[in-house]
Specification:
- The protein is mostly helical and about 250 residues long.
- It has one domain.
- About 65% of the residues lie in helices and about 0% in strands.
- Helix 1 runs antiparallel to helix 2, helix 2 packs antiparallel against helix 3 and helix 2 crosses helix 7.
- The longest helix is centred in the first third of the chain and has 32 residues.
- The chain is globular and about 55 Å long.
- The N terminus and C terminus are likely disordered.
């Protein structure tokens, strides 16, 4: 009974957060398409752009949990269906391709065979980011993004709304995800990595961790316990160092 209760609790929490993020993403996107912008709006536009970027990151992080089967573990069809929908809305990515490459990333983390790592160990942020994005871009993705762009143009009161509240947040969220989820935790530094996962965690509190990347900055914990959903990573972070949390029954 306790195992069943744990599984249901994790599944409901996953669906709850996925629903909140998706609802916020849809409402903010379509609502902002109908706002007529003036110079007076410069006061709140930066916040709106940040919010849209933050919700974009949330879409991807939700899909990331789905790749590990922890979004809704009771049904892999629902779990992966939500993941595929989210990466499609986020940037037209192929969920199947991301799924295969992400698990390869976990197996070969921080090595030159890692699909998320730089081309060589003498990497820089810009070069690494460009090579990272090129690995995941495709013609099908470009076609889908064009369809979304034209669809938003058809309903927006001004093309500027599409650029400011859709295109710009998409770019900013990609940089945010890359910096906090790939570059910062996996880059080579003078201090060696703690173990074979070849990653590190940010030394930050709950709020900063949440606002920057939905706790994905606790990256060493994620690699050690990939079956833990993003919203539970702070709990893992607070656990005793080196403690074996074990693999839960719902995976």
């Amino acid at each position: 009974m306790n195992k069943l209760h744990t599984q249901i609790e994790v599944g409901l929490n996953g669906l709850k957060w996925a629903g909140i993020i998706l609802a916020g993403w849809l409402v903010s996107l379509f609502g902002l398409m109908f706002v007529e912008l003036t110079l007076l709006d410069l006061i709140w536009i930066p916040f709106a752009v940040w919010l849209r970027s933050f919700l974009n990151v949330g879409l991807f992080i939700t899909a990331h949990d789905a790749m590990h089967g922890t979004l809704y573990p009771q049904s892999l069809r629902v779990n992966h269906g939500i993941g595929a929908m989210n990466v499609g809305l986020y940037a037209g990515f192929s969920y199947k391709h991301l799924l295969l490459e992400h698990h390869k990333h976990h197996r070969l983390s921080g090595t030159l065979e890692d699909p998320d790592f730089a081309d060589d160990y003498n990497h820089g942020f810009v070069r690494w980011f460009v090579s990272f994005m090129m690995r995941y871009c495709s013609l099908a993705q470009m076609f889908w993004l064009t369809v979304i762009y034209l669809g938003l143009l058809a309903i927006a009161v001004d093309p500027m709304n599409v650029w400011v509240f859709w295109a710009l947040p998409s770019i900013l969220s990609a940089l945010q995800l890359f910096y906090f989820g790939t570059y910062r935790p996996h880059r080579i530094e003078e201090i060696a990595f703690e173990d074979e996962h070849r990653t590190r965690s940010m030394d930050a509190g709950f709020l900063y961790s949440f606002l920057t990347c939905y706790h994905f900055g606790y990256h060493l914990e994620h690699h050690r316990y990939p079956w833990v959903p993003w919203w539970a990573l702070p709990t893992v972070r607070r656990a005793e160092a080196g403690a074996d949390l074990g693999r839960p029954s719902y995976v």
